[in-house]
Write a structure and sequence with these properties.
alpha/beta, seven-stranded parallel beta sheet, two-stranded parallel ribbon
Length: 500
Amino acid sequence: MTTIKEWTNNKTILITGGAGFFGKVLTEKLLRACPGVKRIYLIIRPKGGQTPQERWANIVKDELFEKLLAEAPDIMDRKVTVLDGDMSLINLGLTQENIEELKNTVDIIFHSAATVRFNDPLHKAFLSNTRGTLELCKLASEMNNLEVFVHVSTTYCNHNLKKHFYEEKVYEPCQDWRIMLKLIEEENPTVMNTISYKITQDHPNTYTFTKSLSEKIVEEYSSKFPVVISRPSVVVGIAREPLLGWTDNVNGVTGVTTAVCKGVMRVIKGRKNCKLDYVAVDIAINALIISGWEKSISENKELSIYNCAYADFMPVSFETLTTQGLDINERECTFDNDIWYPFLLFAMNNLYFHILFYLLQVIPAVLIDSVLFLMKKKPRLIKITIKIYQAIQALEAFTMEDVVFDNKEYKALWEKLTDEDARIFSVKPPVDLKMEEVMLILHKGMKKYFLKENLEDNEHHRLKLRRFYYLDRFVRGILISTLVISVFKLINALLYRYVL
């Protein structure tokens, strides 16, 4: 059987979203684990006054690439070509010269580019996620040597269906992508964004809506070239290699625990026992590579869909996640916290949530920002509170109801690996893996790589946390005492008026 290393020998690979979370980890993994790769093309857009090449030069300075560059210092110059492009533009914003070069050289495509913000306007999300996929499929259909097209989706792209069990298949989207394309291209963006809640129907956000349309496009093009749709669940930091816990964002479940441990988030709308499905980014990347390899060497060239989900191996409730995160923060890896002692309250009722949010988030934010303003420092808590509220609203659809993702086809894929490939491109969870160990790895990674806090400063941060603990208990005591005294006085007043 052809191994994954042998499959990638002398192959040219195109990766979209090269500057994103997935793109970085995928590029590093391919270059390190598949030394025979001929060339990797990365489509990256200009941003912040930097050219795509300048952005990539800064990206590879990250700790993520240290191991790779220590082994092969010149590998980026030898094997990586950055193309100036934009997934939201016609022809992906590529020059005709670049297009012809890709048509004649690319063997494998990994399409990971997407705007993942849940609150992005419909117009922006559609152009990047849906029309960008269409433009890439058009280009792929004209490639001379294409072996496989691997499309990165999400297990939650069909959440509007309100199912409790999602199969490894393409579901019919709530809108026709062709009609949507015409509307987006012809209508005023402001008008489209204003009525987006009507267009997206029961989708929780524009991200899941545009990803569901993208899957339909990819399915239709699967008759022209071999296609795989890989659907990771909520993606978190690296669990194994090359850097334990590495991450560059606060998206998903680790974002919630980080905000809580930093003292800026104290209430969330959700059920305590709601089960969450998540996957480490290095595992998700290995799944992409394995699925592309299997489709390329297989005689079956029909569309394959894999739900890269792990809740059946390690189910975890929202309450367990936050409780363990707080425990790790207090005992083993403490975040620097200048706000308040961390805690989190769950609210299922909308009115109850908004009362708690006003009391525990809005009022403290206004008070702290007022103090900062008087001290001639930059206010920041109100802005953070607004973002937290938007994030909670966006996450509500996923934190209130349990869903299960069928992963039979995905697990069957594991059995096709050789022992060597199973070791290098590990996707099967160890039987002795404990939830606490995973949480500690992710917690340390968030502290070190995203928050840029020194792990050696634990004692100092823990001391600050203990001070906040006593202050928190003192304030709670005052509030409870005040409440008890008020109730006692009220009862006395009522007894005096109506009884005595």
